[in-house]
Amino acid sequence: MFQDSQDMRTNLSELGEFGLIDHLTKGFEPKLSSTVKAIGDDAAVLNFENKHTIVTTDLLVEGVHFDLAYMPLKHLGYKAVMVNASDVYAMNAKATQITVSIAASNRFPVEALEELYSGIELAAKLYNIDVVGGDTTSSTSGLLISITALGIAEKEDIVYRSGAKPNDLLVVTGDLGAAYMGLQILEREKEVFKANPNAQPDLDPYTYLIERQLKPEARKDIAPLLKELGVKPTSMIDISDGLSSEIIHLCKNSQVGANLYEEKIPLDPAVISVCEEFDIDSTTIALSGGEDYELLFTISQDDFDKIKANPNLSVIGHMTEEKEGMHLITRANQKLPLIARGWNSMEDKNENSEKKE
Ligand code: ADP
Ligand code: MG
Fold first, then answer.
1. Which domains can be identified in the chain, with CATH numbers?
2. Of all protein residues, whose CA lies closest to atom 27 belonging to ligand 1?
3. Is the pTM higher than 0.90?
C-alpha cells in the first residue's frame, strides 16, 4: 500500500558492516555541547556537568510493534525516536542524545535502511537530539530497532510516577485515542488492498488519525511550558498504553486513588466521527487505545489557576485516598472501577483485579 523508494537494491553485504555504519551515519554531526565524542570510537563520551542523567531504552520488533505493510520505514525511524524521547519528557527532562541499534535480515537492501535513517535523522534534528552511537548486526528474520535515549534535568525538576497526593488534579496534554483509530484505519485499508491491489484508498478524512499513528510527536514542549507557568507536577508518566493503565501506574506508584471524569477526556472530532463509523465507544478508545505519546501528570490544586487557560492541558480528574480506589465517572454519573484495559463493564470480570469499595 505504501511503497518506500526501493527501486534501487543494494545488498547489505556489498557495503560490509563498517561501510554500512559509515554510510548510514554520515549526516549525524553532533550539535550539543554535552556531546564530547559521538559516533566513531569504541564508545561515546558525554559531559552533563552537574545535571542528573536520564536513561531509557525501547526495543521495536517487526511483526510485534510495527508492520511494514503500512508503516513506511522513514516513519518507523521517526517514531522509534519519539517513543524514547517521550519517556525522557515524562521525567520532566530534556532529551539530548540517542544510540540506535539495528538488526536487519538480507530482505532489507541498503536503500531501506537509508529510509529508516532518514526518519531518525529528521526526528533528531527537529528535537535537537544528537545520535552518538549504536550497533549494527544481521538478523535471520525481519527488522529490530533498539534506541536508547539520554536526557538531562536539574535534580529538583525531575518528576517521578510516585509523587501524586490525594486531591491533586489529574491533567493530560493534547487529545487521546487518535493513534489507535489511525491504526484501525490502516489495518482496514491493508485488508482492502490485499483483496484488490488496484484499490485507491481515500484516506483524506483520516489524515489526522493516520499521522498520529505513523508520525507521533513526543511532548518536548511540556517541561518548558510548565516551567514557564511556574508549575512542577507532583507525578508524571507518558501515555503509551492508554489512559487507563497510565492512571493506574500513577496511582499504584503514588499510593493514591483517582476519579477520572468521562466528559473531561479530550477527544479530537476526527476520533469521535471514526468511532461512530466503526461503532465503538470513543471513551473506551481513549482509555485503552495507546500510542498517544501525550503526557499525563498531577498538580497541586493550588496550581490550577496557572494551567486552566492553556489549550494544551486538560484537567480530567483528581486523585483521592488510596482506599477509595480508581474510578471512571461516566457522563451518566455512574462510578465504574478503572481497569488496565478500558473499564470493567467492557471486559472479562476476571481481569478486573482492582480493589472495589
Ligand atoms: P564496536 O565494534 O566497538 O561495537 P562498531 O563498529 O559496532 O564498534 O561501531 C563503530 C561506531 O559506529 C561506534 O561509535 C558505534 O556507536 C557506531 N554505530 C554502530 N552502529 C551504529 C548504528 N546503527 N547507528 C549509529 N551508530 C552506530
Ligand atoms: Mg558494534
1. 30-153 (3.30.1330.10), 168-337 (3.90.650.10)
2. 134
3. yes
